[in-house]
Design brief:
heterodimer; A: 81 residues; 3 helices; flat; B: 147 residues; mainly alpha; 4 helices
Chain lengths: 81, 147
């Protein structure tokens, strides 16, 4: 893969991880975690693990986001930190 | 966050998108033994297409597709398909999950027997994963969707 695109993907990964950790609104954290997961899937695919990237894209970016949103719906949306 | 409203655009978008996700999930399950993918990924794709309809339409719409009490028997059926395909080969005098001994009709070579045996296993895993993911969603969203 072209290393410039991979560098941009790594930067995107780190930024989304920091935003997901530091966000006060937990819905923002869930959405950013989904972005993190999809970037991770793209990086897995770039490194040759197509099967792992596929699983990460389906589970991390699809089902886990919905389950987190439902968990927020049952609890509070503001963090207590 | 708890305000509810009906949006025909969201429901129409989910209805447009859901069958293609489901078709892709079935493709992934049936091509899992010689291409990337398999039972788990295909089952997760099927589950996400069903959950998409559920999260867009609420309970009344989702009852038309797969009823809530039907997910637990489907998960049990998937596990039974997996275990039966493994155990039949034990009954025919071979090891557990050794697909060479499976009694498929017709004159098949051992390679073709392994091919169809893995296909049966993948279908079982796909049904079980789909049913369990939908069941987790149903139990988490119980009593919350009024639509």
């Amino acid at each position: 893969m072209i290393w410039e695109i991979e560098l941009v993907l790594f930067l995107f990964l780190i930024i989304s991880a920091i935003v997901a950790l530091e966000a006060k609104d937990l819905l923002i954290a869930v959405v950013t975690l989904t972005i993190f997961s999809f970037t991770m899937a793209l990086l897995f695919t770039a490194m040759g693990g197509i099967d792992v990237g596929f699983t990460e894209a389906v589970i991390g970016a699809g089902v886990t986001g919905i389950l987190f949103v439902i968990a927020l719906f049952r609890t509070t949306i503001k963090t207590n930190d | 966050m708890r305000t509810q409203f009906e949006s025909p655009i969201v429901l129409l978008g989910a209805r447009l998108l859901s069958p293609y996700i489901m078709l892709f999930g079935i493709y992934v399950i049936f091509h899992g033994h010689y291409s990337p993918g398999g039972g788990f990924q295909g089952g997760a794709l099927l589950a996400s297409s069903i959950i998409l309809i559920r999260i867009a339409g609420g309970r009344l719409v989702s009852r038309l597709q797969i009823k809530e009490f039907f997910t637990t028997p489907m998960a049990a059926i998937g596990v039974i398909v997996y275990f039966a395909a493994g155990f039949i080969s034990v009954l025919y005098g071979s090891y557990f999950l050794d697909y060479e001994a499976l009694p498929f009709p017709g004159d098949l070579t051992p390679a073709e027997l392994r091919y169809y045996g893995i296909l049966v296993i993948e279908i079982g895993i796909g049904i079980a994963v789909m049913a369990i993911l939908v069941m987790i969603y149903d139990h988490m969203a119980r009593g919350e969707d009024y639509a």
